[in-house]
Write a structure and sequence with these properties.
Distance between the termini: 37 Å
GO biological process, one term: meristem maintenance
Pfam families: PMD (PF10536)
Radius of gyration: 34 Å
Helix content: 25-40%
Strand content: 5-15%
Protein name: Aminotransferase-like plant mobile domain-containing protein
Number of strands: 16
Largest sheet: 3 strands, antiparallel
Structural class: mainly alpha
Number of helices: 19
InterPro entries: AminoTfrase-like_pln_mobile, MAIN-like
Shape: elongated
Strand order of the largest sheet: 2-3-4
């Protein structure tokens, strides 16, 4: 852990090549973004009233189980902590125990959506009127649309109850509106918060054909893209099927998992129902930092690699049971422009298989819809579609002769092991400050006997830079504590210093004050070098802490070596020079050297802050 206190990884960035864009880099630097805003809109699904004929059509379209899934309270801090572990380079979570992911197997067990079939892809739209009129029989008002998206509220207000005795065409229109609302509030929820693209509507024109689409694969592609976007340090929201993500975590990780009041009615397919019952257990103080710390210290004993192993096949629909093998297919998941790689070869332990070192991930272009309406994306995504068509040929083979220790040794080099800092930034700052003081002390006490001019110049420069850093640190800490009234005094002193500098052409100032023993201490100001501060030599001197004390707060380093002169080869620009009316005891050449200071009886130089 000592190593990871300063280097959380990756040591080898050939896999996680986008680390600087990732939110974990921001967290390591102390830039907390808090819990993500989670967009899923399932709370009003129960306000729709479906007729038996509509339920039949929904079943034909492949959504009979998704329709039954209840609204589950989302744990935003848990989801946010999981996102910090998601890597868009591999489409997997990088945990301390290895890589894990939500796979097509999880989608089949948890949501009951078809995971095999035709890819969900079609034509994009930039307006809603024409497509809504054709497939819904009505056109939304201008306030209910935005580009090619329509408000969920308009769909619910207009189509939530089909009239009794309505003709088949009207029933189908109301059912299409319901399906658009269903996917827009669950598996394809967007960060807009209340809208859904109308591009899905043509896929519901024929309900039998709709049932042939791989809606589960599309839902997973959409979630992968949402996770990847949310993992960037610049993002603050996440969408997609977050119920799937949260329940996946409950099944596989013993972190944030609620205790359930077991009800046999909830232990049925699809298995998100297991988490519908009343949850018990502690829920306070579970913020992002709580879950982040838990994931940073995740142990193998806290992972359930194969949570479905005891579930009877008889509980699964035939189409789901027959296609679970696709959970091990290295293929491309497609949802219109969202094409994302499904890489179960990186998390084979989730299938009860020993994990070898996986193949390198081929980088791919994440395409966007573009701005043109009426574009069929199939022509733009031929390569991705070809990979999906070969999905049954891409199932990862089982290799029994695998030594996992080799994988773990490799994994620790390429992963980001920690997200949170084991040592707080404040503690690291104190350690750095102590190191700077040590450097300044060594430089002050170092004997220069036998050094040439270049070496002496280097020592002097190191001494100066160390004291400059210490001065800046102390100054920044003290200035943060200055009150409003004190700030006015600081402003006056700054203006006074500026006037002195303009009069003295940048020369230094010599001050004397008594210490506790009554002895006078001589102070010399060291301004910022010219090449560090452009056209502005301003020193900030803090006001006295006591009304009866006119002395100013100064940083007092260790007394310099008094036996050797360092006057040769020192760069004058690094030091203040005296004004024309300064005390005659100051060096006439304007150079403040250790030998000059050593001649002052028991005096030391100090840096004004």
């Amino acid at each position: 852990m000592d190593f990871y206190a300063t280097n959380p990884g990756p040591i080898d960035d050939s896999v996680l090549y986008d680390q600087e864009k990732h939110v974990s880099s921001a967290v390591w630097e102390g830039q907390e973004r808090g819990a993500l805003r989670c967009h899923e809109h399932t709370s009003k699904l129960d306000q729709w009233t479906l007729t038996p004929k509509q339920i039949e059509l929904v079943k034909k379209a492949g959504f009979s189980y998704l329709r039954l899934i209840p609204a589950i309270s989302l744990d935003n801090p848990l989801i946010s902590a999981l996102v910090e572990r998601w890597r868009r380079e591999t489409n997997t979570f990088h945990f301390t125990v290895g890589e894990m992911s939500v796979t097509l197997e999880d989608v089949g067990y948890l949501l009951g959506l078809p995971i095999d079939g035709d890819p969900v892809i079609g034509v994009t739209y930039t307006t809603c009127d024409a497509v809504c009129s054709k497939y819904l029989g009505r056109t939304p008002d201008s306030g209910s649309t935005s580009g090619g998206m329509v408000k969920l509220s308009w769909l619910k207000e207009t189509f939530s109850k089909c009239p009794e005795g309505a003709p088949l065409d009207e029933i189908e229109r109301h059912t299409r509106a319901y399906l658009l609302y269903l996917v827009g509030s669950t598996v394809f929820s967007t960060t807009t918060g209340n809208k859904v693209p109308v591009m899905y509507l043509p896929l519901f024109e024929n309900f039998d054909q709709a049932g042939r689409y791989a809606w589960g694969a599309a839902a997973l592609s959409f979630l992968y893209r949402a996770l990847g976007n949310a993992s960037l340090r610049s993002q603050s929201t996440i969408s997609g099927c977050l119920t799937l993500l949260q329940c996946w975590s409950y099944f596989r990780l013993n972190i944030g998992r609620p205790k359930l009041n077991h009800d046999p009615r909830h232990d049925r397919f699809p298995f998100v129902f297991r988490w519908k019952g009343k949850h018990t257990g502690p829920t306070t103080n579970r913020d992002v930092a709580f879950y982040r710390k838990a994931l940073d210290s995740l142990k193998p004993s806290e992972v359930e690699w194969c949570p479905y192993v005891n579930i009877s096949d008889a509980m699964l629909p035939e189409d789901i049971r027959n296609n679970l093998i696709l959970g091990r297919s290295n293929t491309m998941l497609i949802c219109f422009d969202k094409a994302e790689r499904h890489l179960p070869d990186r998390c084979l332990r989730q299938f009860g298989i020993r994990q070898p070192i996986p193949l390198d991930v081929q980088q791919w272009e994440r395409k966007s819809r573009g701005v043109d309406g009426g574009v069929d994306l199939s022509a733009k995504m031929e390569t991705e579609l070809s990979e999906w068509s070969d999905r049954h040929l891409r199932v990862v083979d089982v290799d029994e002769d695998v030594e996992e220790t080799e994988y773990l040794h490799w994994y620790l080099k390429i992963t980001r092991k920690l997200v949170g800092r084991p040592i707080p930034i404040s503690s690291e700052f104190q350690r750095m400050n102590a190191a700077l003081r040590d450097i300044a002390n060594v430089a002050d006490m170092l004997s220069t006997h036998g050094m040439d001019d270049q070496q002496m110049h280097a020592v002097t420069r190191i001494r100066y830079l160390a004291h400059e850093c210490l001065r800046d640190q102390i100054g920044s800490m003290m200035i943060a504590d200055v009150t409003d009234s004190e700030q006015n005094e600081v402003d006056k002193k700054i203006r006074g210093k500026e006037r002195i500098r303009r009069k003295g052409m940048g020369m230094g100032v010599k001050r004397r004050r008594k210490d506790d023993s009554g002895q006078f201490l001589t102070e010399f100001c060291l301004p910022s070098p010219i090449n560090m501060v452009e056209n502005n030599d301003v020193e900030i001197c803090l006001p006295p802490g006591d009304a009866d004390d006119d002395s100013q707060l100064c940083y007092m380093p260790t007394k310099v070596d008094q036996t050797h002169s360092l006057s040769n080869g020192i760069d004058d620009s690094s030091f203040c020079q005296e004004p024309a009316d300064a005390n005659a005891d100051m060096p006439q050449d304007g150079l403040v050297s250790s030998a000059d200071i050593a001649q002052q009886s028991e005096n030391v130089y100090s840096v004004l802050v």
